[in-house]
Amino acid sequence: MSSKKIAIIGGGNLGSAIAEGLLKSGFSRAADITITKRNTATLGSLKEQGVNIEADNAKAVAGADVVLVALKPYNVKEVLAGLQPVFKPEKQILISVVTGILIEDLEKIVGGNMPLVRAMPNTAIAIGESMTCICHKYASPEHVSWVESMFNQLGVTVSIDEKLMDAATVLGACGIAYALRFIRANIQGGIEIGFDVRTANLIAAQTVKGAAELLIREKRHPEEEIDKVTTPKGCTIAGLNEMEHQGFSSSLIKGIATSYNKIVKG
Ligand SMILES: NC(=O)C1=CN([C@@H]2O[C@H](COP(=O)(O)OP(=O)(O)OC[C@H]3O[C@@H](n4cnc5c(N)ncnc54)[C@H](O)[C@@H]3O)[C@@H](O)[C@H]2O)C=CC1
Ligand SMILES: O=C(O)[C@@H]1CCC=N1
């Protein structure tokens, strides 16, 4: 368990998920987490678990060892600029999970040589199953090790070059939505061929989990595992080929490129 005090600035979808994950993993005590939001009414569940709920960002930052920014990209610069006098560059670590905000942008806002970390987790962080990509500047090996140990408690972490951060946002963070849409389509198909929605949901989700675990645990390439399922003249290859005729892989690749272009071109 860490004794560092963590202030999460922006208690929305991701900020709340991170607080949930920190509590569930046992990495932080509830009393060591402060989460902020302008309207704190929606943070009741975290409050009940003992997390400090705060509307005043400056107060939260002043009492923190680690400041984790989970604001929307459009208001992050303004909010952080207002907090500049409260930051303690020599004592704090700043972690931003904000899409498209560069370390260079953070540096301009906070000033000084504050340890700066960009992290790109996904919403599975709430249950300790995030894929989190990180990069950093001005962070000592101890800082980096602490940040990695935090995100490792909340899933799997990989260090990447900052120029890949937008790609990480698409593949890792948006990827949760792509995977869920794939599962939803499976559920819809499952209902059409006879299952009730609950059973279809369970079968579709567990099957996707099993497929992912085959890659993660066995370190295999997907096609190697697909070959084991596709009986010659069988139903799997018939269905797979029909999916490809309808543009399955192509639509996913185009969707990924579209998400990426939305980040880099606006
Ligand atoms: N939702 C996701 O799956 C992921 C989101 N991100 C990034 O994380 C950031 C947050 O995303 P979400 O949580 O989805 O957005 P969100 O809109 O749910 O959360 C932002 C929160 O900040 C609060 N807020 C606005 N102004 C504030 C202020 N002055 N002080 C304190 N709180 C304030 C809002 O009320 C809101 O609850 C974004 O930059 C996004 O790009 C990154 C990875 C995954
Ligand atoms: O859609 C978005 O803009 C954010 C970034 C990653 C996930 N959600």
Description:
It is a single chain. This protein has 266 residues and is of the alpha/beta class. It is built from eleven helices and eight strands. It is 54% helix and 14% strand. The chain has an eight-stranded mixed beta sheet with strand order 3-2-1-4-5-6-7-8, with helices on both faces. Helix 4 links the parallel strand 4 and strand 5 (93-96). Helix 4 (73-83) runs parallel beside helix 5 (103-110), helix 7 packs across helix 8 (197-218) and helix 7 (165-192) packs antiparallel against helix 11. The two termini are 40 Å apart. The mean pLDDT is 95. 1,4-dihydronicotinamide adenine dinucleotide (NAI) binds at residues 9-15, 36-38, 57, 70-73, 75, 79, 97-99, 120-123, 173.
